[in-house]
């Protein structure tokens, strides 16, 4: 996997590079201290996963994430931040991030996150899951009971399956799977797959 590190602090970039330097199948192909410099590299190099800081001079990480999601959908993004507020996490996931990590992340966790992102899965720093759950576990405004099929779809999402895999597993078209996912989001009053899984786990409709 080809990794790009984007952070305006060199010490952070050096630390991440050191942590990943001897990991098989991971290659650090570049570093950037700004979002603007990042896009120059993405235009010139094939990148699989970007480790992207949220707060930088110039374009913010969230603004850069939104642009990546729209213009470079093949690039997976893991947000890297000092901020542990659930609002930041939810916003990043809504904008298309494949995960959210704190800068205090342990080596094994950043490796696991990169592996998950490369496979199209979502990874949230383990220390953030409890506050993230707490932020979405109130009574949903439009909550309703999930149908058996919606529960199946949500369970497969929790297992890390992508839409194509869910469609194959359940014998459905991808369009139908997307319809079920929209139904899950509406009933649980969430806006991302990670939030849907969090609420589903909390309510006991999936395991």
What is the topological layout?
Blueprint lengths: L1 E5 L3 H11 L6 E6 L2 H10 L4 E5 L7 H11 L4 E6 L4 H9 L4 E4 L4 H12 L4 E2 L4 H8 L11 H11 L4 H8 L3 H15 L4 H11 L4
Helix pairs in contact: 6-10, 7-9, 7-10, 8-9
Detailed description of the structure:
The protein is an alpha/beta fold and 207 residues long. It folds into 2 domains: 2-132, Rossmann fold, CATH 3.40.50; 137-203, Arc Repressor Mutant, subunit A. It has 10 helices and 6 strands. It has helices at residues 10-20, 35-44, 61-71, 86-94, 107-118, 129-136, 148-158, 163-170, 174-188, 193-203, and strands at 2-6, 27-32, 49-53, 76-81, 99-102, 123-124. It has a 6-stranded parallel β-sheet with strand order 2-1-3-4-5-6, with helices on both faces. Strand 5 (99-102), helix 5 (107-118) and strand 6 form a beta-alpha-beta unit. Helix 7 packs across helix 9 (174-188) and helix 8 (163-170) packs across helix 9. The longest helix is centred in the last third of the chain and has 15 residues, at 174-188. The chain is globular, with a radius of gyration of 17 Å. 35% of the residues are buried. The model is unreliable at 136-143 (pLDDT under 50).
Mean model confidence by pLDDT? 85
The first-level CATH class of the largest domain is given as: Alpha Beta
* CATH fold assignment of the largest domain: Rossmann fold
H/E element sequence: EHEHEHEHEHEHHHHH
Short description:
The chain is of the alpha/beta class. The chain has helices spanning 10-20, 35-44, 61-71, 86-94, 107-118, 129-136, 148-158, 163-170, 174-188, 193-203, and strands spanning 2-6, 27-32, 49-53, 76-81, 99-102, 123-124.
């Amino acid at each position: 996997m080809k990794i790009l590190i984007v952070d305006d602090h060199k010490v952070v970039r050096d630390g991440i590079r050191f942590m990943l330097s001897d990991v098989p199948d991971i290659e650090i192909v570049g570093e950037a201290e700004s979002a603007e410099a990042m896009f120059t590299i993405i235009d010139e190099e094939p990148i699989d996963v970007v480790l992207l800081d949220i707060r930088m001079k110039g374009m913010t990480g969230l603004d850069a994430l939104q642009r990546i999601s729209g213009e470079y959908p093949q690039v997976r993004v893991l947000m890297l931040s000092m901020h542990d507020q659930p609002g930041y996490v939810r916003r990043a996931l809504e904008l298309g991030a494949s995960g959210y990590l704190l800068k205090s992340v342990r080596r094994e966790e950043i490796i696991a996150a990169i592996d998950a992102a490369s496979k199209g899965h979502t990874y949230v720093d383990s220390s953030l899951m409890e506050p993230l759950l707490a932020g979405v576990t109130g009574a949903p405004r439009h909550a309703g009971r999930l149908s058996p099929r919606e529960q199946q779809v949500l369970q497969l999402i929790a297992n890390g399956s992508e839409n194509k895999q869910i469609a194959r597993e359940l014998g459905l078209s991808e369009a139908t799977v997307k319809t079920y996912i929209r139904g899950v989001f509406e009933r649980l009053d969430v806006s991302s797959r990670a939030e849907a899984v969090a609420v589903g786990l909390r309510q006991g409709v999936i395991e």
